[in-house]
Amino acid sequence: MAAVPSLAPCLHSVRAMVLDTDEVIADSARRHAAAWQRAFDAWLSEREGQRPFDRRLGLAGKPDPALFVEAARRLGVTVSDTAAVEDSLAGVEAGHHGGFGLVVGVDRTGDPGKAADLRRRGADIVVSDPGELLIGDD
Question: Which of 22, 47, 52, 133 pairs with 92 at a CA distance of 20 to 30 A?
């Protein structure tokens, strides 16, 4: 059986990582859906159907890279020294258009089509789990 090549060398130039938390770090889809449903139901019943988007940071959503760029700024690193780790097509596109030094697509589905889509949108590499990035390069 051939050894799996390490992904660690691609991280050597990276000083920081910006990770999308939803489905990248934790399997949170079901919990988020239930929480959003409760929040939207309550909010909509009080406001008769107005759209409840909170823009406290004043930043555009993905695929605009503004949120990732702001995260790198707050970490005190340039985007070229930062990796963006995302599972969504819009998020990968945001990392790519933001000029991040490394854009990692996360595909937990195992579907070759999804991995190909992530690459087309700008992922430099695609992993099935972010933990694959931690494997040593001995």
Answer: 52
